[in-house]
Amino acid sequence: MFTLRRWWDRHRLQATLIGLAVGSALFLRQTEGAVLYEAYQILVRPFQPNLERKTVLANAQNQELQQRLTELESQNQQLRALLGYMGETKKPGITAPIVGRSADHWWQHVLMGRGSRDGVQEGYVVMAPGGVVGRVINVTPSTSRVLLLSDPSSRVGVTVSRSRFMGYIRGQSSNRAVMEFFDKVPDVRQGDVITTSSLSQLFPAGLPVGRVESINMSKSPAPEAVIELTAPVSFLEWAIIYPHTQPKSGEAKN
Amino acid sequence: MKNESLTAVLQERPLTRVVANCAVTAGSVLLCLLISPSRLPGMELAGIGPNWLLIWVVSWSVKRTAFQGALAGLILGLIQDGMTAYSPTHVLSLMLVGILTARLRKERYLKEDFISIALIVFAMAVIAETVTAIQYSFQGDRTLVEIWTYHQLIALGSAVLSSLWAPIVYYPLNRWWQHIQTIEQQS
């Protein structure tokens, strides 16, 4: 008891400081750094791009329109055969600037400058000129963190727009993703447009994702294709967040 | 003149000294945390930026004991986990960096200057990324080939950039801690 007391007398200050530091670190961890991201947003607010003068990446947008067209054409054909299909109405999106990247390189995140105060919620889908970018995984009052499609942990069900063969993509850390097909012999060609499939619960169906860059048919257990994501994530300045409520499921969570 | 009066104040009042020291230390951590999500021009190489928290842990541990280094690694690791994802954890890699930096026999092998700090940060960045890659390998949701190809890119990129930017964090912080230490010894 006495030694304990003497130790305390000598190291009181140090022990308190260490306790304080560890405590605040734990707090920041449990709140997923919300305070830090809020502070970051306040700091970078003056440097954010002016959304009124959107410098649209003309080329990327053009590509997106082309992809949408391909998707719509092939969807249209299916619908004619199906008749009685009810289309979904598109909800208005929230335009948000991209203010930061992930705090470590093993994760592919971006930080957007709009949060729960502007109505963003977890699970919302983020689109940019060019196609899908990712989905919101964490929200603070004025920022939201987006898990990009190029993150290896994000898995999305996709379909080849032309032939409707399905598979899923796995991010590859840059602007590439690998698509694994469910079928042994899929009908897929270089340059085919890839869109989110109706099996995907995290994303609404029919959003443009990218195009096929190369195909490896001999891959086991299923053929693979390398997909080039069309949204130029590395130099995006803004993106649009669309509401999307996903059915409850335990899979594909980061 | 102003500097002298500041020194005098710090010398006379131990409590002010502790508070000022804590404020500077915590402030520098906060700066490192706030700068990590940003990618300023010139700080980026193939989408990879410097690992600011690692630079801070190295600067802290260079002249301290292994226990203090590990503690700094624990605290910053917990915070960085909050900012990214809980698993794989940063606590392991940053604690290892803290301990190794503190245990390094600097007086024998390396002199105290920019070059040696850059060298230490370079080596520690490679070690830290390797620890993360090993954790990923055990987790098993990515293929080993993917992990280790990506590890090469990250380890090299982050090591080069971190070692280049290390003096910016190390120099002012080290000056301050040295200053505080001399005052403490005088009083």
Topology of this protein?
The complex is a heterodimer of chains A (254) and B (187).
Chain A: H1 2-30, H2 34-44, H3 58-82, E1 94-101, E2 109-112, E3 125-128, E4 131-139, E5 144-148, E6 155-160, E7 166-171, E8 176-181, E9 193-196, E10 208-216, E11 224-229, E12 238-242
Antiparallel strand pairs in A: 1-2, 1-12, 2-5, 3-4, 3-12, 4-5, 6-7, 6-9, 7-8, 8-11, 9-10, 10-11
Chain B: H1 2-12, H2 14-35, H3 52-61, H4 66-83, H5 90-103, H6 106-109, H7 114-139, H8 144-186
Helix pairs in contact in B: 1-2, 2-8, 3-4, 3-5, 3-7, 3-8, 4-5, 5-7, 7-8
What does this structure look like?
The complex is a heterodimer of chains A (254) and B (187). With 254 residues, chain A is of the alpha+beta class. Chain A has a single domain (31-248), classed as Rod shape-determining protein MreC, domain 1 (Thrombin, subunit H). Chain A has helices spanning 2-30, 34-44, 58-82; strands at 94-101, 109-112, 125-128, 131-139, 144-148, 155-160, 166-171, 176-181, 193-196, 208-216, 224-229, 238-242. Chain A has a six-stranded antiparallel barrel. In chain A, a hairpin with a 7-residue loop joins strand 10 and strand 11. With 187 residues, chain B is an all-alpha fold. Chain B has one domain (2-186): Arp2/3 complex 21 kDa subunit ARPC3 (Orthogonal Bundle), CATH 1.10.1760. Helix content of chain B is 79%, strand content 0%. Chain B has helices spanning 2-12, 14-35, 52-61, 66-83, 90-103, 106-109, 114-139, 144-186. In chain B, helix 3 packs parallel to helix 5. The mean pLDDT of chain B is 81. The chains are: A alpha+beta (254), B mainly alpha (187). Chains A and B meet through helix 1, helix 2 and strand 1 of A and helix 2, helix 4 and helix 8 of B.
